[in-house]
Design goal:
Elements: E1 4-9, E2 19-27, E3 35-39, E4 45-50, E5 57-59, E6 65-67, E7 71-74, E8 81-85, E9 89-96, H1 98-105, E10 116-118, H2 119-123, H3 125-136, H4 140-158, H5 164-174, H6 181-186, H7 192-203, H8 207-225, H9 230-236, H10 242-253, H11 257-262, E11 267-268
Parallel strand pairs: 3-11
Antiparallel strand pairs: 1-2, 2-9, 3-8, 4-7, 4-9, 5-6, 7-10
Helix pairs in contact: 1-4, 3-4, 5-8
Length: 273
């Protein structure tokens, strides 16, 4: 039996360009004294609302381990990061696309790339009030309803009419990161240099970086839902050869595909499908 349990809920249709999903997660279900798991990058930003008094422990680059904030904002990661549990932990999560967070709250994800923050420090007191309401709601459906209503009100305030980085990210997600770079650029009506500059400044990663992360999400979806050989996977997702696939996989996961398949319980995969 898995020591980590997830249930996902789709956002309202009007919010789907900005939010990948809402989810309820239970971690360290068996209540082991001290466990550590590796969280795989998914190209999204996670708002974690703890629904119990027990929290996980996280570490910032170059800092010691500490208890995660009550309402935690996990930034955009391009490498796995570790999380530790000493007790069972339950949370309600909102998984934002990076361009979604910018259009919902007017915040540039580059400000907290590869780290985590207290959501109140980044998004203000209105976010704390919202998170407290979600935490105190008695059911998943009630939490989803609150989230849809609050986030819609924020989109109406902060949505950017001509957001070319949002268009680029949507195109990348649609093709799972497998489009030719020039083909992608040709569909965004600004210069290549301007798109690259704005993308990097806003999100802290390049267009190519985001394409690679999107393709890695596709890999994990394939591995979880379909009985496919690694050779078939590498071909379907347009890697040049098996060695290229293995290198890319190890870069994002930290271990080779075969070792990952044998030790999936050591990983948390919040996959952006």
């Amino acid at each position: 039996m898995s020591n980590t349990l997830f249930t996902e809920y789709k956002p309202s249709t009007v919010l789907s360009p900005y939010i990948q999903s809402y989810w309820h997660g239970s971690f360290n279900v068996d209540g082991e004294a001290n466990i550590s798991q590796s969280v795989l990058p998914n190209g999204c930003i996670e708002l974690i609302i703890h629904t119990s008094s027990d929290h996980c422990s996280l570490t910032r680059p170059g800092a010691d381990w500490s208890k995660s904030p009550e309402f935690t904002l996990l930034g955009l990661y391009d490498k796995p990061y570790e999380v530790q549990f000493s007790r069972p932990v339950t949370v309600f999560g909102i998984r934002f696309f990076p361009d979604g967070l910018r259009n919902v709250f007017g915040v540039a994800p580059a400000e907290f790339l590869g780290t985590y923050e207290d959501s109140n420090d980044v998004l203000g007191n209105s976010m704390r009030d919202f998170c407290e309401q979600v935490r105190d709601a008695g059911s998943p459906s009630g939490r989803v309803e609150l989230a849809n209503s609050f986030i819609l009100s924020q989109v109406e305030t902060h949505r950017i009419d001509w957001d070319y980085t949002h268009l680029a990210m949507q195109l990348i997600r649609k093709c799972q990161g497998t489009a030719e770079y020039q083909s992608l650029i040709d569909q965004v009506p600004i210069s290549v240099r301007q798109l690259q500059r704005e993308f990097k400044a806003l999100y802290g990663i390049t267009v190519v970086d985001y394409m690679r992360i999107s393709r890695m999400n596709a890999i994990h979806n394939y591995m979880l839902s379909k009985n496919r050989s690694l050779t078939e996977l590498s071909h379907d997702l347009q890697f040049t050869d098996q060695s290229h696939f293995n290198r890319e996989f190890k870069n994002f996961v930290g271990v080779a595909p075969t070792k990952f398949a044998r030790n999936r319980e050591s990983f948390i995969m919040n996959i952006a499908q």
